[in-house]
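Morning!

This is the sequence you dropped in the shared folder:
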Amino acid sequence: MIIGIVIGIIIIIIIIIIIIIIIIIIIIIIIITSSIIMMMIIINHYITITMNHESSSSSFVKLSLPSVRPGRRWRGSNPLQKSPCRFQGGFAIHCATDASDYGTT
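The structure's back. Tokens below.
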């Protein structure tokens, strides 16, 4: 009889501990997801503020980023290149001062 009561108490304690652990895990998941959502909202807000305040520089960055293509670098990647000056993305990339980079004189 006493052994059965002890086993029952142990089982009840184990069930209570499992329920507490599940509640703690759910709270941690809620905190993590809400913090991620808040960070996304803050980052989006900051990006929209910077885009509104610095529209000229961000448009310049948008123009200059896709212009740099692999295999078309302007520093000595292609020695058989005819013209050192390239016009890409709506603005001129600076000519290299060393003629040895391009194999031309």
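Headline: The longest helix spans residues 2-53.

More detail when I'm at my desk.
O.
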